[in-house]
């Protein structure tokens, strides 16, 4: 259904007035001329000011609609925002086409139809451009992020204490809102944690995290490696262990568990002194002399400064049926990976087995950027997957 049909304009950055025009193209406050904008659909470029602010500036200047066009960095990421005027959000390639149409047509026209729900979008999921990325700058031996979950245009109950755009100008009040952000992604995982804790009350937080991470998927719904918002292959620095799969997390087979003392040792490695550690421990705790962070029993394996060769140790605990797990490794580029033992036999629940992963630089060349691989332990039924992340010195 066509809502309305109107001429469409955009401010196009001209070399002679570049700054002003490029601010106008972003539809920033104080840059739009109502004489040009009034009654038109305005095309605004994403970036700098808030997306909903662009719509507000367009509306204040008298625009009847807005087309929000992605800049290159936001690629294909399209968000459902609570705009204050009829608006449509288009991806970068469509945006380039729209700007070129406006530039070339004598009297460019546009219309905006009422929204419809589209199911089965492909590829999905892909990483949002705004999602925070690794490496972990504080503790590079521990991969961050751990996991990814839905966080784009998530509809949920909303407070009436503020308007849906969370901007002062917005006097609207809604019971439900569509929001994007890590703040929407995190509660999905928190919910999964709650469900897992109900199902497995004795599991530690580390065991629950391990179950969520090792069962995550790294492929999308076209069975290709998950991509970023510009359709390039994403890495564990974007998605950690992958996209959460709650049902798989119920039955991970094995978990990488951690005790309280291992967490305290981690704090020791960050330089926490006795009095600070006492805030976390039940009694006095003495830090060990030597802590090897690459051996922290995490469900991912990260070696940020591989110089020749390193062995990392991990321990897995059986939380499933008895069985024999075999290792399968996808090696990072130019790194050899050996595992010892490469088969683990579990007879009962709670049984633990330790293995050693040896990483060697095979190509003695200049320091490489981060490279990625993974380790999977499988008994044929469970697939316990850990990312391997390596940077050579
Ligand atoms: C941009 O969106 C259009 C749909 O409007 C789609 O056909 C096209 O594939 C998208 N561009 C890219 C590069 O994915
Ligand atoms: C996607 O990855 C490519 C290659 O690493 C990078 O150049 C591009 O900026 C990334 N796009 C987004 C939206 O993160
Ligand atoms: C630990 O560090 C804090 C400051 O960060 C200091 O106030 C405290 O005295 C220190 N405790 C010990 C036991 O060194
Ligand atoms: C890795 O290097 C170590 C020490 O240099 C060596 O003993 C081991 O055989 C190497 N392993 C592989 C898989 O290349």
UniProtKB/TrEMBL annotation:
Q: Which domain of life is it from?
A: Eukaryota
User: Domain PA spans what residues?
Assistant: 25-96
**Residue ranges occupied by any Subtilisin-like protease fibronectin type-III domain in the UniProt entry:** 295-390
The UniProt record lists the keyword Protein transport: no
Gene3D superfamilies in the record, alphabetically? Answer: 2.60.40.2310, 3.50.30.30, Peptidase S8/S53 domain (3.40.50.200)
* Gene Ontology molecular functions: serine-type peptidase activity
Any one Pfam family match given in the protein's UniProt record, by short name: fn3_6
Q: Name one GO biological process term.
A: proteolysis
- Is the Ubl conjugation keyword given for this protein? no
> May I ask which residue range the UniProt record assigns to the signal sequence?
none
- Location of the Peptidase S8/S53 domain: 110-242
Q: Which controlled-vocabulary keywords does the entry list?
A: Glycoprotein, Hydrolase, Protease, Serine protease, Signal
Q: Which family does it belong to?
A: Belongs to the peptidase S8 family.
What's the protein name? Subtilisin-like protease
Gene source species:
Ilex paraguariensis (yerba mate)
């Amino acid at each position: 259904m066509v809502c309305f049909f109107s001429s469409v304009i955009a401010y196009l950055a001209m070399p002679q007035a570049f700054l002003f025009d490029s601010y106008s193209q972003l539809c920033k406050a104080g840059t739009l001329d109502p004489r040009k904008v009034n009654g038109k659909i305005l095309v605004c470029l994403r970036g700098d000011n808030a997306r909903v602010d662009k719509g507000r500036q367009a509306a204040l200047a008298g625009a009847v609609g807005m087309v929000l066009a992605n800049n290159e960095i936001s690629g294909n990421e399209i968000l459902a925002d609570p705009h204050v005027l009829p608006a449509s959000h288009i991806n970068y390639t469509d945006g380039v086409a729209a700007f070129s149409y406006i530039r070339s047509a004598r009297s460019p026209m546009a219309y905006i139809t009422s929204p419809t729900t589209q199911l089965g979008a492909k590829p999905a999921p892909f990483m949002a451009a705004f999602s925070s990325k690794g490496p972990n700058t504080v503790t590079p031996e521990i991969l961050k992020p751990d996991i990814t979950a839905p966080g784009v245009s998530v509809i949920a109950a909303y407070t009436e204490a503020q308007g849906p755009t969370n901007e002062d100008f917005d006097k609207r009040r809604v019971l439900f809102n569509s929001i994007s952000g890590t703040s929407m992604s995190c509660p999905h995982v928190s919910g999964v944690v709650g469900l897992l804790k109900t199902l497995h009350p004795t599991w530690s937080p580390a065991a629950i995290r391990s179950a969520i991470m090792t069962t995550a998927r790294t492929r999308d719904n076209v069975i290709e490696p998950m991509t970023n918002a510009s359709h390039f292959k994403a890495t564990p620095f974007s998605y950690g262990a992958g996209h959460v799969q709650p049902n798989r997390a119920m039955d991970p087979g094995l978990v990488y568990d951690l005790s309280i003392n291992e967490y305290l040792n981690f704090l020791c490695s960050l330089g926490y002194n006795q009095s600070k550690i006492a805030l976390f421990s039940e009694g006095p705790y003495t830090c060990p002399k030597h802590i090897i962070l690459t051996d922290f029993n995490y469900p991912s394996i990260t070696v940020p400064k591989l110089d020749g060769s390193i062995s990392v140790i991990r321990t897995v605990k059986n939380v499933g049926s008895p069985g024999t797990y075999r290792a399968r490794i996808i090696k990072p580029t130019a790194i050899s990976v050996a595992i010892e033992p490469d088969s683990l036999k579990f007879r009962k629940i709670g049984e633990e087995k330790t293995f050693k992963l040896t990483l060697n630089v095979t190509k003695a060349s200049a320091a490489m950027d981060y490279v990625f691989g993974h380790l999977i332990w499988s008994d044929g039924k469970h697939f316990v997957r850990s990312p391997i992340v390596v940077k050579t010195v």
